[in-house]
Design brief:
By secondary structure, the protein is mainly beta. It has a domain at about 1-125. The chain contains three helices and 19 strands. The chain has helices at about 5-10, 20-30, 35-50, and strands at about 55-60, 65-70, 75-80, 85-90, 95-100, 105-110, 115-125, 135-145, 145-155, 160-165, 170-180, 195-205, 210-220, 225-235, 245-250, 250-260, 265-270, 275-280, 285. A hairpin with a 2-residue loop joins strand 8 (about 135-145) and strand 9 (about 145-155). Helix 1 packs across helix 3.
């Protein structure tokens, strides 16, 4: 990697996606002009010659790829390149941000002073700024033992409200979609309607092992009308490394697995009429 190629990548150090960062994309795709290259060389040269910043460049060649690092005068990583993946780290007052670029997307994650993520924005990596639309945006808030997240998926027209426990494991997820307003017309277009699609619930033991996960589906055209639910239940008996398992459909037990040890277990299928069918396994092999 040449020195000036490294200079291009330094533009990732800026915390805001701007035209200069899109020039990096052009360079990677071979679409950048000589005039722009000279312009960036001049500006980045001024930036690097600042008395406040002392950068160290080094590159490691691996068997199937190359890694390129930039560290500041304190030895902290500010830039990393792994093949076509680019990552930079910067600081804004008390906050930090990481910017990542590949051939398909730009992303930026902001962190608070405790190094916890507070915002993530993902852009499409197109040839112009105007075409590089936001794909998704997610925000996190920290309140006591819980972490709350709101994510907008602009590409798929969905919204997610998520609650995590203190270990960042999801315990409650609500999924919405945006549908066309039935009263919307070409002459008088109306905003799309945000409607409930699905809810997920999760529970864990004191070792953060999953105890159950439940998924409830709703009718998109009839707000709040439940149409189907399923639930997986896990029981850690200590007899096996695998948890005993039960699957419920609309509140009815449909399938279970119970272990005697790691290799011996019984699978049971339950039918709506109350009958059931058992299949036994010994040393991992079916015996009936």
């Amino acid at each position: 990697m040449s020195f000036f190629e490294a200079l291009f990548f330094l533009y990732l150090l800026f915390p805001v996606i701007n035209e200069n960062q899109f020039l990096i994309s052009y360079a990677m795709k071979g679409n950048i002009s000589l005039e722009k290259i000279e312009e960036l060389q001049t500006e980045l040269g001024k930036f690097l010659n600042s008395d406040e910043i002392d950068f160290e460049f080094y590159e490691k060649s691996k068997k199937n790829h190359s890694e390129f690092y930039i560290r500041n005068s304190l030895g902290r990583l500010v830039f990393f390149k792994f093949d076509n993946e680019l990552l930079s780290v910067s600081k804004e007052l008390e906050n930090f941000s990481c910017t990542s670029v590949n051939e398909d997307q730009f992303s930026r994650v902001k962190y608070n002073s405790d190094y916890k993520p507070v915002e993530k924005i993902v852009w499409e990596n197109k040839n112009t700024v105007a075409d590089s639309k936001i794909v998704s945006k997610e925000n996190w808030e920290y309140s006591g033992e819980y972490i709350f997240s709101n994510k907008e998926d602009f590409k798929n027209k969905k919204n997610y409200e998520i609650r995590y426990n203190k270990d960042f494991l999801p315990i409650y997820v609500v999924e919405y979609c945006y549908i066309q307003n039935s009263e919307s017309t070409e002459e008088m277009p109306l905003p799309e309607i945000k409607t409930l699609m699905k809810k997920n619930f999760f529970s864990y033991d004191n070792q953060n092992r999953l105890l159950f996960d439940e998924e409830i589906f709703y009718d998109e055209k009839k707000e709040g009308k439940e149409i189907y639910r399923k639930k997986n239940v896990y029981n850690y008996t200590g007899k096996s490394e695998n948890a005993d398992f039960e699957f419920y459909e609309n509140g009815n037990l449909r399938f279970s697995i119970k272990y005697s040890n790691d290799d011996d277990f019984v699978e049971t299928v339950y039918f709506p009429d109350g009958k059931f069918m058992e299949t036994k396994f010994v040393n991992g092999e079916k015996i009936n």
